[in-house]
Amino acid sequence: MFWLYIGTTSELNFLDSVGVQDAFSVTYNVPTLKTEDAKKVLVQLKVFSEEDIDTAAEALNDMPIKKMYMVLEMAAQGEEGGEAEAVYSGKQTISISHFHECLQDAVRY
After folding, report:
1. Nearest 5 degrees, angle CA 52-CA 62-CA 51?
2. Helix, strand or coil for residue 63?
């Protein structure tokens, strides 16, 4: 039997301290997203209106991709919650002001 473990962390030292780093045979350093990379992701996801993509991409400059997806998921829920399905199905887009609020919350933590 073969097991494949995939993990993401920004705390490699933590994995070592709890004794699980040896379970991973390969470690990749994934660079943070630059504005142009974030824009490519946002264009593919189609979660923002065309006029908001550049603003959102600029706000995501130098952000880890894992955190970007977390912020997008938070923002897709909408201010009242429960809007993600409409956003991901293309029926609705993420409000840029709500996105900025979610981004501020995520950066704090």
Report:
1. 5
2. strand
From residue 26, give the alpha-carbon distance in Å to each of 5, 23, 32. Answer: 10, 9, 19
Sketch the domain layout of the chain as residue ranges.
Answer: 31-108
Q: Is 33 helix (H, G, I), strand (E, B) or coil?
A: strand
What mean pLDDT do residues 55-70 have?
Answer: 95
Predicted TM-score of the model (pTM): 0.78
Cβ atoms of 80 and 108 within 8 Å: the answer is no
Integer Cα distance of 95 and 74 in angstroms: 11
> Between the CA of residue 72 and those of 22, 51, 52, 57, what are the distances in Å?
32, 17, 13, 11
State residue 57's pLDDT score. Answer: 98
pLDDT for 109: 63
